[in-house]
Amino acid sequence: MFESSESLLAAAFVLGFTAGISPGVLFALIISESIQHGAKAGIKVAIAPFITDLPIVLLSLFVFQQLSQVNLLLALISFAGGLYLAWLGYKNIVTIPDFSNEVVKSNSIRKGVVANFLAPGPYVFWMSLGAPLLTEAFNLSVLTGALFIIIFYTFLVGMKITIAIITANVKKFIGGRVYVMTVKILGMVLIGLGVLYIYNGYLKL
Predict the structure, then answer these.
(1) Structural domain includes residue 19
(2) In Å, what is the CA distance from 11 to each residue of 3, 8, 15, 16, 124?
(3) Cα angle, residue 173 at apex, residues 168 and 179 outer, rounded to 5°
(4) Is there a contact between 153 and 20 (Cβ–Cβ < 8 Å)?
(5) In sequence order, which residues have a C-beta less than 8 Å from that of residue 115 and are 6 or more positions away?
(6) Which of 106, 104, 89 shows the shortest CA–CA distance to 196?
(7) Count of domains in the chain?
(8) Domain for residue 40, yes or no?
């Protein structure tokens, strides 16, 4: 597909940057946590791929060679991820926001890790596009393969951290009523994503 290390590394940059700013599970969760608990909580969600994606990449590389198993695996992941996202969305809707200055434990990194691990998006990316590109990069050289991973995740996570910081600062300019409405709307977005994932899982059976 690509004939040089430079083109592969350019692809890693484009894919990482695009994935970092694209709407999805982590995008919605980063905004939700940043608004409710500040930039630090959003950043904890943003770094979830550093924790979850190694087994996802290795599993995707393996399953990529066993194409008959892909649909069933993605269906099961979609069901589990959809239910988890719907639960997170429900919590957003029913939880009464705390406007005090007291620091509230948010478990943001756990939410990010579980949501990213159960979201079908990373699996779909690595099985359909990431695995063949990474294989091609390592076929060129070990250095090219390593740089592909480093560049991809630097821009993926870096852009999500940027989103968390921007969102937390925007929070200062919105009032209490808008704050509550935003959190509840994000809850509905998460539920909607959950339903969509469950439906997509059903289609893959």
Answers:
(1) yes
(2) 12, 5, 6, 8, 17
(3) 75
(4) no
(5) 25, 26, 29, 45, 48, 81, 84, 85, 88
(6) 89
(7) 1
(8) yes
In the numeric block, the tokens 């060679």 are attached to: 65
Assess if residue 101 is contained within a domain.
Answer: no
Q: Which residue has the tokens 């596009």?
A: 129
- What's the domain range around 34? 5-96+106-204
Sign of CA dihedral 6, 10, 11, 16: positive
Structure tokens at 79: 């069901």
Q: For 56-92, what is each residue's pLDDT tens digit?
A: 888 877 776 665 556 776 677 778 777 877 887 887 7
For residue range 82-137, list pLDDT tens digits in order.
Answer: 787 788 788 778 865 544 444 445 678 888 888 888 877 788 788 777 887 888 88
Note the pTM of the prediction, 2 decimals. Answer: 0.72
Q: Is residue 157 part of a domain?
A: yes
